[in-house]
Amino acid sequence: MNEKSIDETDLSEPVKQERVFRQGKKEQNEAIISLILFGIIGLGFIYGMCLNAPAETRISATLFFSMLWGLLMSIFFWSFLIAKYVSVAFHNGNLILQGVFSKKYILLSNIDVIRWSLYSHGQIKVETATEVGTINLFYFNKEERLWMIQYFRDHFLESRQENWPLFCHQIALPLRNRHTIKPRTPRPDDFLHTRKRWDKLIIIFATVTALISILPAWYFQQIKYLLLPILPLCGWFVRYKIPEEGIPVSASENKNFNEASYFFGIWSVACLIIYLPFRFELLPAPTGISVGWTITFIWNFGLYWRIFLMNRRDHQKDLEDAKLSVQEWEAGNRSSD
């Protein structure tokens, strides 16, 4: 993935060392294959919409799904451009940041601030008196990320580094400890969350959604409602974020997540119960008010409020744990010296 091999001894080299980090042919080929595969699927889906959609909605439905698939294609195309052009280089005391459309040369000795950002899979933002450069760690593999994190951590004063404790707790330490953490002691309420289990959950949700979609499709005589199972099927790709061996999960440790899940289910059912009588014209809709959009707004407001409360609680816990993470990081560095 990178042009030069990386090892721990690199960290002791002088500032004028030369290193280049970029994605390789494998990532480019994966992006091209995805572009072609989903492009063919999208064309077939759009063609099917043209054949089956009612005449009065055929054009609008085709345009909508064309825009949707066009957005997906643009994501794969952007991934290809990133794999082909984006790179980070250390050369003769300069930090060279190559983007898709731009290139920056930053003198390492001129860097005033290192800002550790939690965005995406972690970013390293370097600031001088005149410009700002960003290294998105998501584009690089584990060894390359750790090398860059350790480099900026070692070569710049603590006073010039911002947000390191939280970054260390959420990004750096989990990255370094990946695949090296000893198995924790099993708990009575543990269960193994695997890809197969996620597949079963997706199948259950898709089946339930398909059964629910039959009623409005039959009542309104519109086949478009039968496309509702596509929504839970879109979540199938999350399975690849689960390790092949699975993740042991404790129900008590995931109390916040479980509470949020229960709230999401009860809140969704409550909004659906309120909406259906108006949708099937069992109750008269208020004049000048769209019941569907109003209930959707209320549902989204409740959902995001719950997410906000959960994130605030998690953030407070992270602040408390960050100091211990920094100590563990530094202890690990001393033991490897």
Strand and helix order: EHHEEEEEEHEHEHHEHH
- Count the DSSP helices: 8
Global mean pLDDT: 81
How much is the radius of gyration in Å? 25 Å
Distance between the termini: 26 Å
Give the amount of beta strand, in percent. Answer: 5-15%
List how many beta strands DSSP finds.
10
Biggest sheet statistics: 4 strands, antiparallel
Give me the side-by-side strand order of the main sheet. 1-2-3-4
Using the alpha-carbon principal axes, give the shape: globular
From the helix content, strand content and strand pairing, which structural class follows? alpha+beta
Helix content: 40-55%
Q: How many domain units? A: 4
Low-confidence stretches: 1-14
Report on the structure:
This is PH domain-containing protein. It comes from Gimesia maris. Keywords: Membrane, Transmembrane, Transmembrane helix. The chain crosses the membrane at residues 31-49, 61-83, 201-219, 225-242, 262-278, 290-309. It contains eight helices and ten strands. The chain has 337 residues and is α+β, with helices and mostly antiparallel strands. The chain has four domains: 24-85; 88-181, no CATH class; 190-250; 251-337. A four-stranded antiparallel beta sheet has the order 1-2-3-4. A hairpin with a 4-residue loop joins strand 3 (94-98) and strand 4 (103-107). Helix 7 (255-279) packs antiparallel against helix 8. The radius of gyration is 25 Å and the shape is globular.
